[in-house]
Amino acid sequence: MKGMHGIIFSYEKKTGLRELIEHRIHGSVPIGGEYRVVDFMLSNMVNAGIQDVGIIMHGKCQSMLDHLGNGKHWDLSRKHGGLTLLPAFAYAESRGGVEKFHGKVEALACVLDYLEEDIRQDYVVLADSDLVINIPLDDVLQDHIASGADITCVCTSIPGESSDTYFKLDDTGRIIDTAYDLYAPEGYRGLSLYILSRELLVRLVRDCMAHNLYSFRRDILQAMGDKLNLRAYVWDGYAARISTVQNYYERSMELLRGDIRAELFCPERPIYAKENDACSSYIDPSGECVNSLIADGCDIQGSVRNSILFRGVKVEKGAQVDGCILFKGTVVKKDAVLRGIIADKNVTVQEGRTLIGHEHYPLVLGRGSEV
């Protein structure tokens, strides 16, 4: 099939998400009131006509498994192909254990049989699950084919963190240098989104494992840059990696802006999520809700401003919530005051409590905690 097959990496890796990944892997972190971070990449693939997606998982993946189910919410529940969950512990024997992956190549090597036998398409899209983006992947594929590239790397001219991957391009769009952990970032920032042929992917994985190499960035993009035709697809639309508590808070607050929402949730490329049946949210006549995203099933009797509330959040009379992100089932009791707070699922803030974080250092309340 002359199309694309999607592979999403969603396993434990070093991040600054702290309490937010205490009970989950980074791809299943809730965002925007109704979504998980992985929903964006899954939707990008489905919108590009991708019918088969494999998700490589490892670590605290129960939340991800519960969220994805059989893939029906993304039209990926099929008798042949569709959504395939690839938990690393199923391949423990081949790796001598279930310790963390050292890199993408090692993760791919663990599912090499899947790459060789179960992928029906000619091309493969490799993506991380912590990227919030709405990009036409079918356009990226057409550019990849037209350019004759071995690997097309999606990147942006908008700078990011020094730990990100950065590319230098020549006048034709070919990548002539790959670097990371730069003191002063320069060039085009990589988005960890790649397209290459299935045949080349299998060959690269086999070659790397034969030489005890495991990093896609170092051992393929850097080491083989002079042997492979690496080309860039520059995307200067909205793209955000969720890698720290700080940028999670900042990117979430950006969703309160109409222009950002219009770009991310455009009707021609909708973002799909797991359906949750809940009644409509209730806002008491004595309460208020200003410049906020409110999911279904919320009960707001106090004041909510500049905040994001997930399903089933309760804000009692006299309570004030400002600049906060409250996950599913959080209860803010009477006369409590919250500012700059991220509350995980089922948190209870007792009556009269005052909790103040800051937009540059939000306070995180762990799942199920009572304050």
Characterization of the model:
Helix 2 (62-68) links the parallel strand 4 (52-58) and strand 5 (82-87). This protein has helices at residues 38-47, 62-68, 92-95, 104-110, 112-117, 137-147, 198-210, 216-222, 245-254, 258-264; strands at residues 4-11, 30-31, 35-36, 52-58, 82-87, 123-128, 131-133, 151-156, 165-169, 175-180, 188-197, 230-234, 239-241, 282-283, 288-290, 293-294, 299-300, 303-305, 308-309, 314-315, 320-322, 325-326, 331-332, 337-339, 341-343, 348-349, 354-356, 363-365. It starts with a strand and ends in a 6-residue tail after the last strand. Helices cover 22% and strands 29% of the residues. Helix 4 (104-110) crosses helix 7. It has two domains: 4-264, Spore Coat Polysaccharide Biosynthesis Protein SpsA, Chain A, CATH 3.90.550; 282-365, UDP N-Acetylglucosamine Acyltransferase, domain 1, CATH 2.160.10.10. It is elongated, with a radius of gyration of 21 Å. The protein has 371 residues and is of the alpha/beta class. The strands form six sheets. Strands 1, 4, 5, 6, 8, 9, 10, 11 and 12 form a nine-stranded mixed beta sheet that branches. The chain has ten helices and 28 strands.
